[in-house]
Amino acid sequence: MKLVLCVLILAVSLSMAGHPVATGNYGGTSNWQGTDDIVVWSQLPSTGLMASQKFTDYDSTAVDCGVADDFEFTTETTINKIRWWGGYWNGAGPFPVVCYSQIYLYNDDGTGNAPTLPEHSSAINYWAIAPADYTETVDGDYFVYEYIFPADVVFDANTKYWIEIRKAFDFAGIGQWGRVQSTPIFLSACVQGTIGFSGGPVYWTALANDAAFELISEAALEASTWAEIKTIF
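The chain above was modelled as a monomer; its predicted structure follows.
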C-alpha cells in the first residue's frame, strides 16, 4: 500500500514538473509599501499566481496561457507608466528570468465580462518590452515590475478596457511565470485562458479574483519640490 502511494505521489509530482499548470505558489506575500506616483488605478497584490506566459519552446497554438483584467475611468485618462506583480514556480529557474515581457490592451467583448477574441490578435495595442526597458524587483515572495510607455496612453471615459501581461521564456528547464492575484474584485473578475493545459480554462474564463496591477499618470513632485513651490508663493 505504501509503495503504491509513493508511486502515485511521484507520478503527480512529475506531471506537475513536466507540463505547465494554471496556478501556483499559494501562501506567498508582498511587502509593497507604495510610492509617491500618481496612481489612477490600483489593485494591490494578495496571494497566489495565475499562469500568464508565452512559452517560447512551444507552438502557441499547442500550449499557451494569459491573464487579463479590466479597468474603466469616468473621465478621459492619460497614463505613461504601469506597475504589476508576478512570480515564478514549477521549475528550477534561475529566477528572475531575463526575457521579454508582453502587454496586450483589449476592448471589452460587449458582455462586460471578458476581452475580445481571438486572444492576442484582437488586441487594440501591444507592447513587446525588452528586458532593459522594464524593472523587476523582489517584493516579498513575488516580484514587482514597472514599465514607462514610449508614448502616453489615453483611455476614453466610461469605456471598459482589459489588460493582459505575460513574460516570454522557455518552460523546459526553467519553469513558469504568472500574475499575482488581487482581492477584492473591482468591476469584473480577471479572466484566464489556456491552450494545451490538462483541465485548464479556455480563453477567456472568469476566475474568483482580480490580478494585481497599477496604472500611473506621472511621477509626483518630490516633497522638496513642493516645499520650494510653497516658498515661492
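The chain has two helices and 16 strands.
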